[in-house]
């Protein structure tokens, strides 16, 4: 194994977290970007080698992946837009690059694959019968990866819940619970308060990806895993943790304004896509990480107060000075 990895989507949440962890572990990291100068301006982290290219163009990805042992496919259409038009073509570019360079594909999976029939505790082998269009797209993507694995291209899939972390403003945590780039003045929660909900703290998820990649030779050619992450038995507990971390335990937790999403859906594509996934906020879905723990020994897990604090600081919602004056000792 050459310790070189191409990260597609390095300026995004999960791709950026993986790029940082792999660089910290001594890997040479390449990032694919259509505009290298813009990517460099957006990037904050260890030095990585930016390569100009478009994930929609197989030749660009093949060239960028020359000599790598792994390709992390963290490309996602922003704002849920045009998944049907770009998700599979971008994956096909990665597959072409993996075949051409003898590289392993590393793929961040989602809970979208699963419909209500698979709930509440979902194993890696659970039937994938999605009830949404995006879910069907994700199932088709994984089926394509299983197919190329049967042809000899090794694949790692790690499925996880909703992301949160220090650089994920475009997430349910950074939009539906708090607002980025401002002190926390209001907290909302999108789901039913007493229904469990799965969140994935990106530094933990990235560390898990890194451990799997570095032990990839011990894995079968097609290796799907589940990342349990921070599962809150009462989903609203993540919002309660936010107000504890900011030192305002009495702050009211409001309801997410779903009415506004419904009202805007006829005119805003992102709103329509958000509504399609609302069922995940109404029903319990917990990922069973038994296979992951059996392989790695344990799942990387940052204590909730520390994870929430780091996420808020990274999103510009909590300064270190504020934290030192407001936080209870247990949260410092």
From TrEMBL:
Molecular function (Gene Ontology), one example: aldehyde dehydrogenase (NAD+) activity
Domain annotation NAD-dependent epimerase/dehydratase: ranges: 5-215
Cited Pfam families: Epimerase
GO cellular component term, pick one: cytoplasm
InterPro entries found in the cross-reference section: Epimerase_deHydtase, NAD(P)-bd_dom_sf, NAD(P)-dependent_oxidoreduct
The protein's name in its UniProt record: Nucleoside-diphosphate-sugar epimerase
